[in-house]
Amino acid sequence: MSSSNYFRSWMDRPHLDPDTRLLTEEYNQGIIEFMRVARQQPEAETGMLRCPCSNCKNRKVIKEWDVWTHLLLSGFTRSYKIWYHHGETDYELGSTSEPQPAVRLEEPIRADVDYGVGTEQMINDHFRGEDLPNAEARRFYEMLDAGKQPLYEGCRDGHSALSSAMRLMGIKTDYNLAEDCVDAIANFVKGILPEDNVIDVCSDNCMIYWRADDQRTTCKFCGKPRYKDTSGRVPVPYKRMWYLPLTERLQRLYLSERTAKRMRWHAEHSTDGEIRHPSDAKAWKHFQSTYPDFAYERRNVYLGLCTDGFSPYGKSGRQYSLWPVIVTPYNLPPNLCLRREFLFLSILVPGPEHPKRSLDVFLQPLIYELQQLWAQGAETYDISCKENFQMRAVLMWTISDFPAYGMLSGWTTHGRLSCPYCQDNTDAFQLKHGRKTCWFDCHRRFLPPDHPYRRSRNLFTKNKRVFDSPPAEISGKGLKTQLRDFGAERTPDVGGHARFPVDAVGNLHNWHKKVYSGICHTGRIIC
Predict the structure, then answer these.
(1) Sequence ranges of the domains in the chain
(2) Residue 1 pLDDT greater than 80, yes or no
C-alpha cells in the first residue's frame, strides 16, 4: 500500500489545486461518491442532510444544496472516513477509493510506518494451513469473525458489536461530548470489560485483594474493612485498581501479517555500528550472550516498562495522583516501537494519595504475568510463518524520572545517599546554613586519571585537587547481600510503605524495600 493510495486518501489532501485554485479531480469524484451514499438513506427524502464539511463537522442538518456548497468551499472533515452519519456501515466500495482497514483515521498511513491492523485485514490473515492456529489464536479469530455477526437477532444489517463500538467512539469525537456523556460511555465500557480487570485495594495501600486474598473482607495488615458500609446489595470497595493483562496483546502482534514479521526486526536488521535501536547496544547483546536459549527464538519479546504520576484535573483542580504503568515491546523497528498503538497500558494506580513505596503492591499482577512469560511462556500462533511457537518475554529495563526510579528500584532517591551508584561512598555534603544536601564537585573522580580538570584548583572547589578513583561497581550478588544484611523486605510481604523501616537507612544505605526478582530485569534507564 503506497503512501498516496490508502482508504479515501483524497480527504487528507487539499481540495483546491494550488496552481489553478479549482477543485481537484479526485476531490470532485469523492464528494460525488459521498452524495451518492448520502442520498440512499431515508432522511435524504426530506432534502435535509448532515453537513460533513470541515466547519459543520456533522453538527448541523442543512439543505442538500447547501451541503454541496459547504463541501466545495470548506472541504471535508478529514477524520470522517466512514460515513456512518449518512448510512454507511464499516466499508463501502466506491469509485474513488479502495477498502482499507480503518485504523488511526485521524492521520494518513505512511508506507514506511505501515502499522495498521484492521479487522478486515486480520480476518483475511486467517489461515487454516498445515499447522493450525492454537486454541488462543482460534478464539481471537472467532472473535474477529463475530464482528460480522448481528448485534442481536433481528437487528438491521451491518450492526455488530464491533461496528457499534466504532460508531460510539466516532460520535464522542465528532461532538466533543460533555462530561456526563463521557461518564456514560465509560460505564458502558466498564460493563463489557472482564471483571478481572478491576482489583480491590486496601484503603491504606497495604494489599490488593487478589488471588489467595480475593475473598478477604478485611486487610490482613491494618485490619481495615474492604467494603464501605452501605445499604445496597452490591458491596462497594473503598479503592480499586485497574489491570489490563499483557499476554493476549503480545500474542495478537503475531496474529496479523502487518506486525508478525516486524516483531523479528530486532534480530534481522543490519547495523553499521551506530546505536539506532536498543538491540544495537551492548546491554542487549550482553543479555543475549547470558541467556542464549532465550535469544535463539527471535520471536521472544523484549519489553520496557515506564511509569510516572500526573493529576488528571490539571494544576487548578483538586489534588490527585494517578499513576499509569505502560509496557512496550522493543522488537519492533524504531518508527513503530514508541507509537501509541504499541504502548500498552497495563496498570492504572488510583489516587488521590501518592503510592510512594507501595507501588510494588499494585505491580503484583503485572509482575506475576511477567514471571509466567519468562519461565513458561505462552503458546502463540505466528501468521507470517504459519506455525505455533512458545512465546516468552523479558523485562529489559524501566524508564522513569529519578523519583519514580526510587519507587521502582527500592533505593530512596533523596538525602545524602541518594546516588544508587556511589551509595555510601559519596562526596556529597550539607550546606552550612541551609542544611541541604549538595553534590557540587562530586564527579571529578569519574574523569580519566590524566584529565586536566582533576588538577584544577580554581574551576571547582577552591584549592582542591582530586586523585581518587571512582567507586567500584556493585554486582548483583553484592546488592542481594546488602538487602539481606540490612533486612529489607518486599513491600507486599509487610504491607504498605511505612510499617517496617529498614535498619540504618540514611546512614549506611538508602534501601527502603526489596525489589521483585524472577522476571530477568536486566537494568534501568533513567531519562
Answers:
(1) 9-114, 241-408
(2) no
